Amino acid sequence: MSKATTIVNAKVFDGTTLQDWTSVRFVGGLITECSVASAAQEGDEVIDAAGGTVFPGLIDAHVHIVSGALAQSLTFGVTTVLDMFSKPDVVARAKEQADSRPDVADVRSSGVGATAPGGHPSLMYAPFPTLTAAEQAEQFVAERTAEGSDYLKIISGTGGLWPSLNSGTIKALVVAAHARGLLVVAHVSSTAGLEEAVSAGVDVLAHVPADVELGMSLIERIADAGMAVGPTLATIENTLGEQGGAAVAEDPLLADALGDAWVHRLTSASKGFSGRAMPPYSRAEENVRRLANSGVTLLAGTDAPNPGTVFGASLHRELELLVRCGLSPTQALVAATSQPARVFGLEDRGRVGVGLRADLVLVSGDPLEDITATRAIEWIWRGGSACDRGAFVASAAEAEQLDAFDAQIAKVVAAVRERRSVGSRTHSRRLK
User: Which are the contacts of 269, defined by CB distance < 8 A and separation ≥ 6?
Assistant: First the structure.
């Protein structure tokens, strides 16, 4: 039997509230005791928290996995990631890695999402299966289930720049997924797309639109339906010209575990989409504030590795931004622990309690008073195994990740240039 570990002299946030416990004991990957007095037994490895705070391992509710994503995520206390579009071979490798190694985050995935031919995110992932009509929905969902998808992702492109599914097809996909017991997550890029996804009856809305201020009637529909929203402000702020990546890189508590290569990428990230009139980022935060004030369930997710974001570290930025939108630090932590666990049916994690996974983070400060204290990490345990926070930087895994990241960016840039070139040639022919 593996050696037990007991944390003593700690504050304990259990994923929903601050408990009066000061001690947590775990062995064999599971929590065995939470107590007011020390739970240590003879032979235990005892960790003195010295008044620091223990909370559940963080859950990033929106990523797109690449090589090294799981290892880098764990370095920052993210013990589970929810992938929102990846090809089956990538997902299979990631799940095999998570199942066999304690030094990487766990993962769930949608696999390939449902979109129209040429629709988002074709620039990043094409070729992949698409659909054009409601009659194809059942087969599409069946194929994703056979590939091991844990939930369904739908791309609602209404109001966006790319070809998109029609409303009837989106509704048929929701019906087919729910019939198989799958949760449905909808990517939305505009308020019109948000309304379309809400009308289709999806379960989770990914991203918060910033094109207009969300109306209260729409917000009330979301709240009344019990839908969750993952705003992904950590990506949106960069997309809309804010320097979120630099803010992450310039925080010593994050930069020390990032390494020079990622600090450079974050500080040199693109300043939004050039050549397009973009809405103000402040509107995105205002829309999140309106959702939160109406009691809508919010989930913390980053959409990493979009430009300006990085696995793990950017989730701490997302928590900071959620608090800036009016959430209390406690509410922000809930959005990264017990709430995504509840929404996605991960019953064994997201909370601290007897019989649950020993996915735990110990920080030296009090994130319930100052949310940025989540960055002052002292210890991370995934399934009871301690994480070596220095193992990823400058490793072969990091080099592979950086190569994959750079290749992905190059692919997108080339595709955008080709699209613009085709558009320019078409425009020139029309003028002749």
Answer: 238, 245, 246, 307, 308
- Is the Cβ–Cβ distance between 56 and 349 less than 8 Å? yes
Instruction: Give the rounded distance of the alpha carbon of 300 from its chain centre.
Output: 6
Encode burial over 185-199: b for 16+ CB neighbours within 10 A, e otherwise: bbbbbbbbbbbbbbe
The pLDDT value given to residue 420: 56
Alpha-carbon span 289 to 20, nearest angstrom: 31
From CA 348, how far away is CA 344, in angstroms rounded?
11
Q: Which two tokens stand for residue 244?
A: 């979120």
Residues forming a β-bridge with 363: 53, 377
Per-residue pLDDT, averaged over 129-155, amounts to 97
The pair phi, psi for residue 430, each rounded to 5°, is -70, -30
CA dihedral of residues 80, 410, 117, 420 (deg, nearest 10) = 140
Q: Is the pLDDT of residue 427 over 50?
A: no
Cβ atoms within 10 Å, residue 101 = 13
Residue range 128-138: mean pLDDT, rounded: 96
Burial 111-124 (b: 16+ CB within 10 A, else e): bbbbbbeebbbbbb
Distances (CA, A) of 318 to 218, 313, 424: 24, 9, 38
Q: What's the length of the chain?
A: 432
What is this structure's pTM?
0.95
What pLDDT is stored for residue 426 in this prediction? 45
Give dist(CA 308, CA 4) in Å, integer: 40
